[in-house]
Write a structure and sequence with these properties.
Elements: H1 2-10, H2 14-27, H3 29-53, H4 62-80, H5 83-97, H6 102-114, H7 118-127, H8 133-145, H9 149-161, H10 168-181, H11 184-196, H12 204-215, H13 220-228, H14 236-249, H15 252-265, H16 272-276, H17 278-287, E1 293-297, E2 300-304, H18 315-330, H19 346-354, H20 357-368, E3 375-379, H21 385-398, E4 402-405, E5 410-414, E6 417-418
Parallel strand pairs: 3-4
Antiparallel strand pairs: 1-2, 1-3, 4-5, 5-6
Helix pairs in contact: 2-3, 3-4, 4-5, 4-6, 6-7, 6-8, 8-9, 8-10, 9-10, 10-11, 10-12, 12-13, 12-14, 13-14, 14-15, 18-20, 18-21
Length: 424
């Protein structure tokens, strides 16, 4: 790691530095944070030196410099989902910046949500002496994103009951919460209230959120009807949203129609195989070799790809997964082999499901983490439906909580249940 540290100090090109950061992150979150801290200190030193050189010593604000350092570290902790390091940074901020400003409290709140720790985030929210609009935005958006849409709607109701006026951005968070609840009726009531009670003119972003809300629970024809009645020309984002929902729910015909419109409006949004057909695009997505998972265990980050199941060093992981599969079947699990696209027999398809990277990460976490501790996995694509079911079964069998961050949201899985309630 010392070599990487030294290289980072001398390299100036952004792409190369980003690559080195990725390499460093794989070696351990703590090392990553050390380098970021060093960079921030160099920036602060340059600011101080510049003020002294120009005879502007009176402009040096020590509290401001400490705040810059803390805010940058909070950003890194949130990005890397590093909860223990996030708590250290928070304590440092409380020690050196007390009392915290509303904007700093908001950043702490967001950091904890990004790390998947609702308890810490809610504790911060309750302890804040005052809130601003960003505070409410963060609570509404992040509670829904973390699988607590009912609480998100409750916060929105609390906000309105205080006589405060929501803005357009806040309603996007509300529509997201209704989407997670699978409650189209409530979402449409909020949409009507937005313009009727608060005079907010719907933007394209609102329509995108509403289309996602309707289509995410499989009401694809209703979503299309809603789009056709829009008072403005639908953007490429609207059609792309419906296209993606068609992919999830298996409506290839409507999905292809949407793909044609996306192709017409912005060809760059479709890969080459997706241009030839929605199903091919799905196959391409399933087979991408760059898809990976990150598992954090005691501040160490482990990376998994689907093909890693065939690595001899992972035989213990695969053995554990096979043992769990037996128990899962006894508990009622039925493998959804429709997620396996290879032309092989049923047994082979069930074995192929064991090789999915999210399961490898979960099994590695069971091997390496402390007993009863929460296991966190970051995935860079949408959860496979069978893996989603499997991890719920595993959570009940082993008595563990799993926090899985996929391309769309957090899934808090505990005792056989998931915070997404089946909508994701």
């Amino acid at each position: 790691m010392d070599v990487v540290h030294a290289t980072l100090q001398t390299v100036s090109k952004t792409a190369i530095r980003q690559g080195l950061f990725t390499l460093l992150l794989k070696g351990g979150v703590s090392d990553y944070l050390v380098v970021i801290k060093q960079m921030i200190l160099r920036i602060i030193n340059k600011i101080v030196l510049g003020c002294i050189t120009e005879g502007l010593v009176d402009l040096i604000d020590i509290n401001m410099l400490v705040q810059i350092r803390c805010l940058q570290l909070m950003h890194v902790c949130g990005k890397t989902k590093s909860l223990e390091e996030a708590r250290v940074v928070h304590r440092h901020a409380l020690q050196h910046l007390h009392p915290l400003t509303v904007s700093t409290d908001n950043r702490v709140l967001e950091m904890y949500f990004e790390c998947g720790s609702l308890d810490d985030a809610i504790d911060v929210f309750k302890s804040m002496p005052e809130y601003d609009l960003t505070t409410w935005h963060t609570m509404i958006m992040q509670l829904a994103k973390n699988g607590f849409p009912e609480d998100s709607i409750d916060i929105f109701t609390q906000f309105k009951n205080m006589g405060l006026k929501p803005d357009g951005q806040m309603f996007i968070g509300v529509f997201g919460a209704c989407s997670m609840l699978g409650d189209i009726s409530e979402g449409m009531l909020h949409f009507e209230s937005m313009s009727k009670d608060y005079g907010i003119v719907p933007t394209m972003a609102h329509y995108v959120s509403l289309v996602e809300m309707i289509a995410s629970i499989g009401h694809l024809d209703e979503a299309l009807e809603f789009i056709e009645k829009m008072p403005m020309e639908p953007s490429v984002e609207v059609w792309e949203t419906l296209m993606n929902s068609c992919r999830v729910h298996g409506n290839i015909e409507l999905g292809d129609r949407c793909a044609e419109l996306v192709m017409k409006l912005d060809p760059s949004r479709l890969n080459e195989k997706a241009k030839a057909g929605l199903l091919l695009g799905e196959i391409s997505e399933q087979n991408k070799s760059t898809i990976n998972n990150h598992l954090e265990v005691q501040s160490q980050v482990h990376e998994f790809r689907d093909r890693d199941a065939y690595d001899p060093k992972n035989y213990k992981i695969c053995a554990l997964l096979r043992g769990l599969r037996v128990q899962m079947k006894e508990a009622g699990y039925i493998a959804d082999t429709g997620h396996v696209l290879h032309d092989i027999d049923q047994e082979g398809k069930e074995d192929a499901l064991l090789a999915h990277n999210v399961r490898l990460a979960v099994a590695q976490g069971l091997f390496n983490s402390k007993v009863r501790s929460t296991i966190k996995v970051i995935q860079n694509r949408r959860f496979c439906g069978d893996c989603h079911t499997a991890v719920k079964f595993i959570s009940k069998l082993v008595g563990r909580e799993f926090i899985i961050r996929d391309a769309k949201r957090f899934h808090h899985m505990n005792n056989g249940l998931c915070s997404c309630h089946g909508y994701w």
